[in-house]
Amino acid sequence: MNIIGKWKVKKIGVFQPDFSMKMLTPQEIEALEDFEDAEEYLEMASAIAEFLPDGTMNTLFPVTKELENQLLEEGKEIVDGFAIMDTTTWKKENEEYFCDTKINGEILGEKVSSFEKLVIEDDCILFNNMLLEKLEK
Description:
Layout: E1 5-15, E2 21-24, H1 26-31, H2 38-45, E3 48-51, E4 56-62, H3 65-73, E5 78-79, E6 82-93, E7 96-100, E8 105-107, E9 110-112, E10 115-117, E11 119-121, E12 124-127, E13 130-134
Antiparallel strand pairs: 1-2, 1-3, 1-13, 3-4, 4-6, 5-6, 6-7, 7-10, 8-9, 11-12, 12-13
């Protein structure tokens, strides 16, 4: 599968009271009663992942007119009504895709890679507890 292009959130992992995670659509999150973190999850679900041919992945968020000036003052780039809120890199190795989470660490004294494998299933990408579907087919 070619990952180049823009991808929207189809489902997002929502932590449950028993510490498990359930994948929910934005509509399912909106329908939850008494869910105090709904606004935060819905904001994350509005993100667009943009994979570029040069190995760059941009995280884009829609910008309201009210926020546009503030984001520009903060040095954020705005393109077609979306702010580039984060940029990282992705790579393809042995027919598998990986994205840099920028999380560095060690396990038992050995450095571990900051690259997380992108799980491809049913024309979607599972990454960072989000199931992404391609906007442009």
